[in-house]
Amino acid sequence: MRLFVNQENHNLAIIKPMALWLRRKKLGLNPREFAQKVLDNAQLSDIAEKLEIAGPGFINIFLNPTWLTTEVSTALSQKI
Asked: How far apart are CA 80 and CA 76, in angstroms?
């Protein structure tokens, strides 16, 4: 996976390999339908405050601030 940071709004984007997109085609789903199936099966309640589909099938994951703070603090303390 690759991580991109938008320098204007500081949004993060994680780009998953094309395998996931090819799976969508095999299932015969349009991008928004596929994104909904991903969200229906995502188990992100521990880390996500909100999940939403945007545009033609993009998935926005709004991280829980408490979870994020804990993870960042742990990483900084371990000097990762």
From this structure: 6
